[in-house]
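Thread: "does anyone have the structure for this chain?"

Original post by V.I.:
We have the sequence but no experimental structure in hand. Need at least a predicted one for the grant figures.
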Amino acid sequence: MYQYPFYTLSPQPSTVAPQKKLLKDQYEVLQIELGSGTYGKVKLALNHKINKKFAIKIISKSYMKQIFATQHILNELNYLQGCKHKNIVEYIEHFEDRDNIYIVLEYCEQGTLDELIKIKQKLTEEKAFHYFYQIAQAILYLHEKDIIHRDIKADNILLQNNNVKVCDFNWSIFLPNGGKAKPCVCGTTEYMPPEVITKQKHDKGVDIWSLGILLYYMLHGELLFRSKHKEELYEKICNKQQIKFNEKLSNECILLFQQMLAHQKRINIQQVLNSDWVIKMLKCKQNQNQLELTPIKCRSTAQESTRVSIVSDSSRFSNSKFTAKSLYTESPYKSKNQNQEIQHPMKVRSSALDQNNPAFRVEKRYFY
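Reply from O.Q.:
Generated one for you, tokens below.
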């Protein structure tokens, strides 16, 4: 009898696609990494329920506890949930599993301002102003809520439809009543002001300095202070030195630089938005019908320091946002007579402000 030869058949591939692992039964984390930082990675995710892309920040719980970063993450969640502004990245939701905390944010397709600057090498005054003004509006909004970002830099400015979205609140702090933060080296070295490097108490002026460094970067294509050695970089930042500007810069822009990068008597965000350069650029924009923007009323530094935020005494958590109290602030009124009447300035009215969203406190909460 004829014997048929025996052939080993290779297994046929399954026609059933492997089931995708979904976070919270809706988010598929894609392989595209949007960014990374000290506490985790940011990846692109697709929400299958609404077929929309989002950015998901994935934070390892074990690593977070290892570097004692719990409070930083809680602060970021608190500020993201409490801040609603067109130039601040939109918080969607957060959730957790046994290993990680997931923060879902809006997805900004155009990347970061840093990536744009590296491609363009440097921006014109008109283009730089387009981004600068929006970042300043976001800072105004935060400062009106007594929040200091403390890490304003090109990497933390996302771009969406040619508009900016400030992100990353890991270093942010709540400073009510014109208080000052205790000495702390925070933020990114190249953008740090002298008072942070020398470990002095600091206030909202740190964001103004960083904004000035960022504006210089946009206009020159390189950071103002650069060095491979941290000690040398510290020395450059702390020693007052003459700044070399692009010859094509306007006098109004150079004057604003000098005011924002002052070691003492630095201007505040209201004064930035009322500077000659900003008003000049606004008029040009309005004449071209590109932006409908109006400079806000100026408020003095003295008035800024006497502003008192009205907040609830309740420390209970709500479903909509965290409530918190900063552990690193010192009120300028603690040694004054408590019966002394404090003059409250009028509120600055601006499209950048959400008058219905009050300042909030910050307190510790731990994930389990």
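V.I.: this helps a lot. Residues 113-303 form a domain with the Transferase(Phosphotransferase); domain 1 fold (CATH 1.10.510.10).
O.Q.: and The CA atoms of residues 184 and 199 lie 6 Å apart.
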